[in-house]
Amino acid sequence: MSSTAAGAASLAAAAVDKPWRRQAAVVCGCGSKADVATLGNLCVDIVLDVPCLPPSNPAAKLKFLRHLESCPPDESAWEAGGICNFTIAAARLGLECVTIGHIGSEPFGKFLSRILDKEGVDVARISADVTSDFDGSTLVCWVLVDPEHQHAFCSRFDFNKAPVLDKMHKLPPKAESVIQNSKALHFNGFAFDELLPSAILSAVDCAHAAGNAVFFDPGPRGESLFRQDRSTLERILTLSDVLLLTADEVVT
């Protein structure tokens, strides 16, 4: 688990002023008050040693990805990734956590559901319509490491022209209820690969209206988001109580 995720979870713990001991109840989005709700970027990481990193050419990189997907390694190489790093760290610190997002029903989705359940994290699922660009499966990110210990990330989101849930302009009522019944909302820039900016803004507005703390980690997507939808990003930044930024991200 990354130190960044653990540090962010510690900040969240301080923000919600939670005693450092897990309660027996698990949030189910039906009235219980969660400490932290996370949004989007539910992902399985597959860590794999490769003889060389994928090419930068998009067509060649896509071919490389298709080859990886055709013969995935067993579960020993799988990890809960993305926003799960923060959510699991927060749960281990004693916070009651619920995560909002899409998980498929294929083996990767079953693996991720099992890990989150084991860690005491409830999942409020957002359904996704199957389209020509998306088959409804769980997001998988390939973490590729070459013999020189250089690494690269590769996923289908590298090639998507639009967010996966591009018909969802606003979060469904169940998801909004989960946010309202939480003390804090945490999300990162990769959520924009799944959700339209308007849907993410609706989540932030919902949290803000309920008086909940908002944590936003723009990450590597921050710079491109600023170019694509500056007004929405500025609104989200304004409503965020805590921004998680690297030194380079502050400058850019």
TrEMBL record:
Domain called Carbohydrate kinase PfkB: residue spans: 81-250
Gene3D superfamilies linked: 3.40.1190.20
Protein name (database record): Carbohydrate kinase PfkB domain-containing protein
Protein species of origin: Selaginella moellendorffii
Domain of life: Eukaryota
Record-linked InterPro entries: PfkB_dom, Ribokinase-like
SUPFAM superfamilies referenced in this protein's UniProt entry, alphabetically: Ribokinase-like
Pfam families named in the record: PfkB
